[in-house]
Amino acid sequence: MITDPALMSYYERGGERTRLREGRGRLEFWRTRDVLLRTLPPAPARVLDVGGGTGVHAEWLAAEGYEVEVIDPVPLHVSEAAELPGVTARLGDARDLPVPDGDADAVLLLGPLYHLPERADRLRALREARRAVRPGGIVAGAFISRYAALHEGVRLGLLLQEEGRAAARTAMETGVMISTNPLGGFRGYLHDPGDIPGEFTAAGLPEPRRYGVEGAFGLYGDVDDWLDDDGRRELLLDAARQIECEPSLLGVSGHLLAVTRVQNA
């Protein structure tokens, strides 16, 4: 379960209801959906959405015909996700999943890995995902880029204050993120894209394919204009798709996905 009181307090405020449904966060939502639709096994596969929050991805997965269960450590998230059509939800920790071996066709870790500052905890979560997925199934993890704090510091003006500059330096040098958001203050971990494959293999998983989620487009000031219009949004998604796996551009993306298929027994 979440042991950081600041992190629990942050999520209990309910910000996850809207983060990916409004504004710039929609680019992360649409791109994550785009990658998963191309990499998950076909419906009606069983998907464990670990750390799935209020069910923003579980909702569309269920609508696509998947059998979806959200496992999350925040009671508010679990109660809200459980109200979604076709979605079940229960409390649980990514490091100790309350499911039997080989329970799912796919395990999604779309939040836990950047909320675990200690590498040993991230490896535990990845090993649990490996245990919970059936042979031949998919494990997908989301990560925040090591350089995201610097990029956001410029976009939001946080670098104008010494506290913001220090947080960005610490994140780039160590990976440890200390949120300067007045509503936050929790610790997290930002990944160097080159370190992601090693964490998967150290957990006994095959080396994953890495995807830049927003790419450089997440840095654009007028991205909302593209997301508001269906036609322009599809053009934006197609542009991001063309460069999503380019190694030289992975670190520019605010978020990354890593997807692997577990070897058959």
TrEMBL record:
Show where the Methyltransferase type domain sits: 48-140
One Pfam match, given by its short name, reads Methyltransf_11
Q: Which GO terms describe its molecular function?
A: 2-polyprenyl-6-hydroxyphenol methylase activity; 3-demethylubiquinol 3-O-methyltransferase activity
Give the top-rank taxon of the lineage listed in the UniProt record for this protein.
Bacteria
Which BP terms in the Gene Ontology apply to this protein?
methylation
Q: What general EC class does the enzyme of this chain belong to?
A: transferase
Tell me the keywords, alphabetical order: Methyltransferase, S-adenosyl-L-methionine, Transferase
Enumerate the CDD domains for this protein.
Answer: AdoMet_MTases
Signal peptide segment: none
Query: Which Enzyme Commission number(s) are listed?
Result: 2.1.1.222, 2.1.1.64
Instruction: Name it.
Output: Class I SAM-dependent methyltransferase
Species of origin: Nonomuraea salmonea
Kindly list the organism's lineage. Bacteria, Bacillati, Actinomycetota, Actinomycetes, Streptosporangiales
